[in-house]
Hints:
Blueprint lengths: L2 H5 L3 H9 L2 H7 L13 H12 L10 H13 L4 H4 L1 E2 L6 E2 L3 H16 L3 H13 L12 H9 L4 H13 L10 H13 L12 H7 L18 E6 L6 H8 L5 E3 H7 L9 H17 L3 E4 L5 H13 L3 E7 L3 H8 L8 H10 L10 E5 L7
Parallel strand pairs: 3-5, 3-6, 4-5, 6-7
Antiparallel strand pairs: 1-2
Helix pairs in contact: 4-5, 4-10, 5-8, 5-10, 7-8, 10-11
Protein name: HD domain protein
GO molecular function, one term: nucleotide binding
Pfam family, one: AAA_33
Amino acid sequence: MSWDDLNNAEPDEVLAWAEAQPWAVAMASCQQDASWHAEGDVWTHTKMACAQLTGLDEWPDLTGRDRTVLLFTALFHDFGKPLTSHVNPTTGRITSPKHALKGEHLARNILRELGCDLETREQIARLVRFHGRPAFLLEKPEPDVEVVSLSWLVRNRLLYLFALADTRGRITAEMGRPEESLHVWRLVAEENGCLDRPYPFDSDHARFVFYRQERPNLHYAPHEAFRGAVTMLSGLPGAGKDAWIAANAPGMPVVSLDELRRDLEIEPDDDQGEVIQAGRERCREHLRAGRPFVFNATNLLRQTRRRWIDLFDDYGARIEIVYIEPPLSVILKQNTRRVRPVPERVIRRLAEKCEPPTLTEAHGLVMVTGREGSA
Length: 375
């Protein structure tokens, strides 16, 4: 089935499709700790959580898109457990550390293969990543900050509704996280004006600073005095980054890691230290001059982007990320027309690891999803 088929299917039809998939078979073979999941294996819990969704009081009033997002969040929320679960040899307890993080990447890749649109895919992937957070809200020193920080990554209403279905879709011998604690998440979100929309920061810069503070302050209003601007490109090789620059930033200075690699005669699979150092120095030249420029590299991982953003922020620049992701078939076709094509296996491996940027990272974000020739 394609994404269009699944998007228009009833929950029972989606579950029937999912049950035949290899990843569902793996979940059915993955046992859980009986104290938290006396119902048994991961797939049994998954089906129970899906069934609880349609019984939620708010389910009839949700849009079709919201229902789809919640249903696939339920399908994938414990996706990572078969790869992360292990039994403690001393206690016999089963744990699945970081299964939500692993599940985020797995869900993103499955949805990409199905042809799911970028916006819906990322909503589902991030809900999978953060699905367990509401249950631990009362353990956080600043609940307001916790709820606000998630509001720019997921819709808090959907996160809350899924947490209800997840909690109700299990049999527990040790209920240490009563359902009442989940309602606190909703109340805090309502009080901060971020149940159905991101928290309303005073400015883009206030949001940018909030996510970079060690101890975030909701009420801090930083002074805005930008010295220059950086447009950071992000996307797989062959996505169309050069074409976007030619169409949207003609004549603007560009720092391109691909060009530096060619100039330095360094292959992509060689040590990139010299390329990175040269790129940082080129960026510093523009930053010191307060000159707007484009930084062109794949920048697929949040950690990688963070290192460059730290540099740009040190010089007081305004930072906008442009993420380009046409369908993978288009990327592979465009890659073959490059002067130095990247091996297809490398592009596919990069796609599996890719972490699309969010507005928690920069002052602005542009998402480009066009077909061939439009990027």
